[in-house]
């Protein structure tokens, strides 16, 4: 009888119930909310499902993230900046840079959206973060998860990488909720209804030369951006060259999805209650939201200015796509424009600033690294 009692007692002590805290329960509830948003509402399920499930697992079984645990090895790939670089390759292989080449003015809209990064940087300094931590946090404003992880790793901010990554990916996923109210407040119905002229055709030669030229120019000026910009442009060269279809398909499909699984679950697994439920995390999440809102607003406001200078030829809504969430932000520009006029097609116009935002955020990250002497 005592044997049975001891066995049952040991089983009870080994169960998750024995060590689960109120904080763990809160994080499990948050994970379930994320799963609901991803599955029931369709909010970027490719990102939210693995992140939410990693969050769920680590708050039930914390050892899965400790040294030697399964997700510990996944997370080391984040720290070594391997997964973010591979993500960029996949993004490049999936993305048509034609709209940006056809309308180079889109670069200005992508640059304007980076304003949120610098706003968050000075905000983080004011909140007491050191300069490197502030730089790592500020990149959340670009709504670019891979770059956020890459910069946090390079600047030695692995202790806050989890909150930074979760905030960045969460805001990427919630673009359809966060951006539209800002876009509507800053624009008039007339501006939202502007129909833009069809973009000029872009030749195959232009599409082939673009990734090569961008890689050379940006890497010469900021060599520290080579891992991100280089992989982004390599993936795009796979796509546009037309001679390595197998590599393009692998980078944009199988490899991309494998990396998303590894990165998403490892990012989610950094959100244990002990690491996540504290004042520092709340500050990071708040700063990330402020940065993202400022970036969206800056892009729209520059869009309004360009609209005025061109005599109403540019729809300011495409400025919101200057953040790096590809192609989510461009789809939101299309959706908000279509709400005013169902015959208005802004998607391809918005893809120009959207791609420019990806490049811009990587350049800003490289600038921070250069400032801090990181090679």
Overall description:
The protein is mainly α and 375 residues long. The longest helix is centred in the C-terminal third of the chain and has 31 residues, at 279-309. The radius of gyration is 22 Å and the shape is globular. The termini are far apart. The chain is built from 20 helices and no strands. It has helices at 2-14, 22-39, 45-60, 70-79, 82-94, 98-102, 106-112, 115-126, 131-138, 145-154, 161-173, 175-186, 189-192, 204-221, 226-241, 245-268, 273-276, 279-309, 328-340, 347-371. The mean pLDDT is 89.
Mean model confidence by pLDDT: 89
Largest sheet: none
In percent, how much strand structure appears in the residues? Answer: under 5%
Principal-axis shape = globular
Q: What's the helix-strand series?
A: HHHHHHHHHHHHHHHHHHHH
Give the beta-strand count.
Answer: 0
Tally of separate helices: 20
Distance between the termini: 66 Å
- Alpha-beta classification: mainly alpha
Helix content bin: over 70%
Keywords:
375 residues, mainly alpha, 20 helices, 0% strand
Quick summary:
The chain is mainly alpha-helical.
Question: Which secondary structure elements does this structure contain, and how are they paired or packed?
Answer:
Blueprint (H helix, E strand, L loop, with lengths): L1 H13 L7 H18 L5 H16 L9 H10 L2 H13 L3 H5 L3 H7 L2 H12 L4 H8 L6 H10 L6 H13 L1 H12 L2 H4 L11 H18 L4 H16 L3 H24 L4 H4 L2 H31 L18 H13 L6 H25 L4
Helix pairs in contact: 2-3, 3-11, 3-16, 4-16, 5-10, 5-15, 5-16, 7-18, 7-20, 8-9, 8-18, 9-10, 10-11, 10-20, 11-18, 12-18, 12-19, 14-15, 15-16, 19-20
